[in-house]
TrEMBL record:
Keywords recorded for this protein, A-Z: Membrane, Transmembrane, Transmembrane helix
Keyword Transmembrane: yes
Compositional bias annotation for Polar residues: 387-397
Region (Disordered): 1-26, 351-397
Organism (species): Streptacidiphilus alkalitolerans
Protein name: LCP family protein
Assigned protein family: Belongs to the LytR/CpsA/Psr (LCP) family.
Positions with biased composition (Low complexity): 358-379
Parts of the chain that traverse the membrane: 32-55
Record-annotated Cell envelope-related transcriptional attenuator domain positions: 114-269
Residue spans of biased composition, Acidic residues class: 1-16
Amino acid sequence: MSDDGDVPEPDSESTEPDSGPAPRRRSRRRRILFWVAMVTGLALVAGVGAVWLGYQRLNRNITTDTTTETLLGPPSARPTVAPIAYDAENILIIGSDTRAGADSSYGDPDGGARSDTTILLHLSQDRTHAVAVSIPRDAMVHIPSCQLPDGGHTGATFAQFNWAYSYGGTACTIRTVENLTKVRIDHFMVIDFSGFKKMVNAVGGVEVCLAKPVADRDAKLYLPAGRQTVNGTQALGFVRVRETIGDGSDTERMGRQQQFLSSLMQKAESDGVLLNPAKLFPLLDAATSAITVDPGLNTVSKLYSLASSLKSMPADQLVLLTAPREPYVNDHNRDQFQQPQADELFQQIRDDRPIGLTGSARPTPSPTPTSGASTGSDPRSPAFSGRTANQDICSSS
């Protein structure tokens, strides 16, 4: 410091770093961070938006039938539910063979609609076991009088089961099933042909197994013998054709449909479809486009809630079988329910008891402490011929 106290001037040769560029570098970093944040934010918004739009699309796909519940009449006119089965659910799944619209290529478009496939799906109150029972379409049954949307009524008649759908639609089919089984139907789902094909294609095809080659010109179905993967069009022919596969009976065809359903479920699980959004959305899109349901199942969230309640159920606890049947006494080209086996099966469903299979080592679910009653099989209960959802496609049922 100088004697006069003045501060010396900075040396022109000083080696102190120049602080001038620092603000520019900080500005650049801020701009980079800003654009990264913007891009990330837009990506998140786009992702959420895509999910929301996808959810709305799936909801719009679903067709809601608000008429059937009214046509079924007051609850007092329908079967009662035993206390042990209060939380169980019974869903009637109807495969409609309407030839209208997208399904016009399958048969005569003026031939009306009948329930080509009808399955009673029972889910136990604790969701530890389930059974899917195919109702023979050719079974001769008493079809009750049914109310029609225009206020009229059909007459009670004795006819083959699938005519109930032709006479009075979903409501008449439900009334007929409830009349036959004394099982209260909680929900229903009607599935059409075109949607079925899309579901199969969405999972990349499904495995089937044939003992002999098939060449059916009418069904446009040509398949070799053995294990193979079929696309949607082939799958539809596989589950519908009668004369050229097996013994040509409707009973054999129902067994083939059960075989196919178990294979479809296995494919969706083993191929990671349920855990992969890119694969799951096309499947959900196809499925929701194909169904008509009651108001209790008419949103994705309601269907998800139902499905999530089954996520812990082992595949070997889902039984698929056909209601016991035998040739109709007056016409062996038709069926009738075999007694007392059919009544015993429906009684077990009403009591929410697991269904045993002949020759099966299928384990029995443990009693549920909170239910107040055991869900275990009664050793006196009969066993039925069928298959479980985890059986290999080439194994016999």
